[in-house]
Give the backbone structure.
Amino acid sequence: MSLVCLGSAHGSPGVTTTALALAATWPEHRRCLLVEADPFGGVIAARYGLGDTPGLSSLAAVGRRGLDDDVVWQHAQQLPGGVRVLVGPASADEAHAVLRDLAGALAAWSAAHIAVDVIVDCGRLASGFPAAGPLLGAGALMVLTRSSLDQLRPAAHRVGSLRHSGVDASLLLVGDQPYGVRDVTSALGVPVAGVIAWDPRAGAVLTGTHGAVRDLRRSPLVRSVGTLADRLAIPATGPDVGEDLDPAPVIRVAEVAREAGS
Ligand SMILES: Nc1ncnc2c1ncn2[C@@H]1O[C@H](COP(=O)(O)OP(=O)(O)O)[C@@H](O)[C@H]1O
Ligand SMILES: [Mg+2]
């Protein structure tokens, strides 16, 4: 399995959009689940005209003490295009409570299911011990930031403190103007996992604001996320859906960061 967490430190850099695009472009031979674990409340159900249930709330009602093999899939919904998602509750209070109860069990479920890759939208990463804490420590974490000082600096601080606590954290740039990977790594001293193209048109389609879905596939945003998905997923030689093999080595975000910075 591969557990990839996405979050932010400041503003709204595009975490939900990128997580969704990552799940949509994840290599087809791998089974992928998107988890909306934003403690400030979920938006995916509203954006895609789905109900809040089934989702994290209904899963929490049955899974506090541990998650059976199939129970997670029973609470997932399917987005147009086929992405399977555990939507988060819209209310921040409920999201917080549900994540406090469920994050540990979900991290354990993910670790036990080597043929499933889990992408987690962790939303804003609050300081201290976040509700989704057990998920952050269980995989690779990318802190998204636009290429502006007001987002870069808090994001770099968050990455630094998470790495200090042992989390495999790095930055993921949304756009590379005016500051690109080399500027950021040399000035801020934290690893950068890659760059997602700055692409307001595709962003608007993915957030359901306007635009045609057929334009998405060749968009800079989806192409850049697809490249990242290929690098993060277990290589094609790894276990396929349904195969019960030893876990193949996951390409860790740290390795991706070294490549991006080289
Ligand atoms: N790569 C991108 N390029 C341009 N705009 C984007 C990109 N990703 C997201 N957006 C836009 O940014 C806004 C916030 O996106 P969202 O994914 O909800 O952010 P977050 O989850 O970080 O709050 C939306 O209007 C979305 O269309
Ligand atoms: Mg979001």
Remarks:
- Residues 63 and 102 are 7 Å apart (CA to CA).
- The longest strand covers residues 116-124.
- Residues 8, 12-17, 174, 196-200, 203-204, 207, 221 surround adenosine-5'-diphosphate (ligand 1) (CB under 6 Å).
